[in-house]
Amino acid sequence: METATLDRIDRDRMLELYRQHRELLSAHDPPRVKAVRDEAFHAFQRLGFPDRKLEEWRNTDLTGSFGRSYDYPLLPMQGMDIQKVFRCQIPHMDTAILGQLNGWFVSRDVPLMELGNGMIFGSLSEAVKKYPALVERHLGRIAQTEKDGFAALNGAFATDGTFICIPDGVRSDKAVQLVNVIQHPANVFIQSRNLIILGKGARLTLVHCDDSYDHQPSFSNIVNEIALEEGAFLDHYKLQNLNNNSTLVSSTWFQLEQKARLDSHFLTLNGGLLRNNTYVTFCGADGQANVYGLYLMDRRQHIDHYLFVDHAAQGCTSRELFKGILDENATGVFNGHVLVRRQASGTNAYQNNRNLLLTDTARVHSKPFLEIYNDDVKCSHGSTTGQLDPDAMFYLRQRGISEDNARMLLMFAFADEIVNRITIDPLRYRIEDMVKKRLQGELQICEQCVLHCSTPEHPVEFDIDASKI
Amino acid sequence: MHMLLKITNLHAAIGDKEILKGINLKVQAGEVHAIMGPNGTGKSTLASVIAGREVFTVTRGEILYKGKDLFKLSVEERAREGIFLGFQYPVEIPGVSITNFMRTAVNEVRKYKGLDPLPAGGFLRLMDERKKLVEIASNLTNRSVNEGFSGGEKKRNEIFQMAMLDPTLAILDETDSGLDIDALRVVANGVNKLRTSANAFVVITHYQRLLDYIVPDHVHVLYEGRIVRSGGKELALELEEKGYDWLKPKA
């Protein structure tokens, strides 16, 4: 097991680490993948890490996260109890589970599987070897490493992650659940890369979870490249339930060809400092992207959603709705940028960010932004931040409902606008349950598993039957 | 007869503005009181103060409810003790279904009274029975509380909630305003069906027409924060005929 150590994270240390281990990192790269890696390295050399002088990072301070020491795993780590990953399965949900430990794909039996219908899933590093042409066509070509220091760094370093390819016309009946678990005896810095390709008319439900199993600090810099070819449909769920000492920069690029459709749901229940970069690019006409977010933060947790929706083709529809509940000293950022290019006539774009602040010390910076270069468009944006409606509180209490339950009912109703968009019933029930527990302050990183999957369900003392809301 | 509500020399203000300037009112079990009066004289304030709305400050006076100091009880405690306020402007609460809202409310009231929560089946039966009693459309309860409801639907929903909670003292704050004659009948029938010798209703209204359907035992006229005249049901008719001007104190 090869693990390097960093006494802190900064540009020079990362450049040095790369130079020391360049051979190991690129050992299995086909020439074009190696070229992409080199390009990314040069981009990082130029860009370094973003800091608060950049408009897009103005309200997110990584200094504390950078200042710690970290182990940097250069090879897959051992010691994962594979059963733990599978325990995270959501009851009654028929999913294929793919596990990652500290960014490395954990093989259940074989590292890469090809099913009878042509669907491939498994380790990205194996896919690079076995399907070089397929991987080369997409890897590093969807993510834009030349502008973003984190993406560039990931491009230089990442050697593994998960690879999924659904061939043309194939509809995956089973949802795929990708569980990324962080567990390490010391602080750990993780960089993995996931590549997901949906062929023409392909269909996939992907549940992508970021989980911690302990309270150890971690820093993850993850890049997800997701290609949706013509008429493909991806129902995407990103579940984030990390410990309070975790830092996560998760960048996801969705590239949509003609008539492709994306439904994406970012559900954040816990974490220390989280930054989600979401990029949606409409490359072909008549695409549709619905991107929803729900974040429930408290203590000193920080969540930053950066979204960039690029309408580069005509007749596409994008809809973003992000809702947050921030308690105690939690802080949030919503930066939504919709670009409608000159050629993108017939665009429909809508973005909205709504926040509930439960204390005077919780804060949110919300900036929805439209940039439009075509007249034939329908665009709207909005942002509201406030407290629970006192009239609604009085109304509920006048019917005999306690102040606590009235607050809970209103908060749950607020969150439910996002939760009720989850189309997989067992997942929705589970998320409803987790949201209830979270709003009651009960959800904590449990010893075995953050999803409480391996422990018997604790009955929730909650008078409100949320399933009937 | 059993005294439910006894208001003595009640003064209440919002900010620096005094709205109630010495209200005296007694309501006994089995009675229906109508409170009438022009706009802005303090009718809704009186209802809000009884329900416990925090924006109003009580500056003087007392309210005894079932012999107890009402001001010592929180909003929800008053509700659990049987005080129901039918809102003039019912609040829209997106995302909360009426079913779940009422189930939470009914069970919290039961808990307060030391009763077990109603099981789902029992609750649904109670809901069906109450919907029939107050003639509320069955599908109304599947919707979010008041969201997108017409004025009439909102008021029917208030009456339905009243029927569910079976209050001891119901205060209906201009529940009749803006209603067509059918909705008005639904509201009035609800009150008439729920009337018993053990409960009481205070009906705040602008118009005499509601009192064609709900026959009050006492009618009070509120003007500039005081009850300036009390009488029987014939007072309402007199007001209908003459308006309020004759009751205003001469300058």
Strand content of chain B: 25-35%
* Mean pLDDT reading of chain B: 91
Q: β content of chain A, as a range?
A: 35-45%
Report how far apart the termini of chain B are. Answer: 40 Å
Largest sheet of chain B: 6 strands, mixed
Number of helices of chain A: 10
Written overview of the protein:
- The complex is a heterodimer of chains A (469) and B (251).
- Chain A is an alpha/beta fold and 469 residues long.
- Helix content of chain A is 23%, strand content 39%.
- Chain A is built from ten helices and 22 strands.
- In chain A, the strands form three sheets. A ten-stranded mixed beta sheet of chain A has the order 4-3-8-10-12-14-16-18-20-22. A ten-stranded mixed beta sheet of chain A has the order 5-6-7-9-11-13-15-17-19-21. Chain A has a two-stranded antiparallel sheet with strand order 1-2.
- Mean pLDDT of chain A is 89; it is low at 443-469.
- By secondary structure, chain B is an alpha/beta fold.
- Chain B is 33% helix and 29% strand.
- Chain B is built from seven helices and twelve strands.
- In chain B, strand 4 and strand 5 (68-69) form a beta hairpin.
